[in-house]
Amino acid sequence: MSQSQPVFRVLLRMNIHSGMEEEFERTWYQVGKAVTDHPANLGQWLSKSEEEEGVYYIMSDWADEPRFREFEHSAGHLEHRTKLHPFRSGGTMTTMQVVYAMGGKR
């Protein structure tokens, strides 16, 4: 049994230039509303790897893929990417459909 309303999830792996991690975190937080203000965005999270230095993961959930793709090609997303690009030395993007979601006790 899957969720009644599927969620489209995007996972970015970002390699950040050494010594720029704190500034990257601050900038990501400052410009994050460009993503979360989009009506189809369900939230986003920034996580830092404990195993690989300078590696961050950004996960964002979307109501559906077409509206994510609309945002991905928008001027707002281009501006957001432009502000984060100077920190990056590489990265990847993976997209997926959430099959099950189970909440914790928190």
Automatic annotation (TrEMBL):
Pfam families: ABM. InterPro entries: ABM_dom, Dimeric_a/b-barrel. SUPFAM superfamilies: Dimeric alpha+beta barrel (SSF54909). The lineage of its organism: Bacteria, Bacillati, Actinomycetota, Actinomycetes, Streptosporangiales. This is Antibiotic biosynthesis monooxygenase family protein. Keywords: Monooxygenase, Oxidoreductase. GO terms for molecular function: monooxygenase activity. Residues 8-96 form the ABM domain.
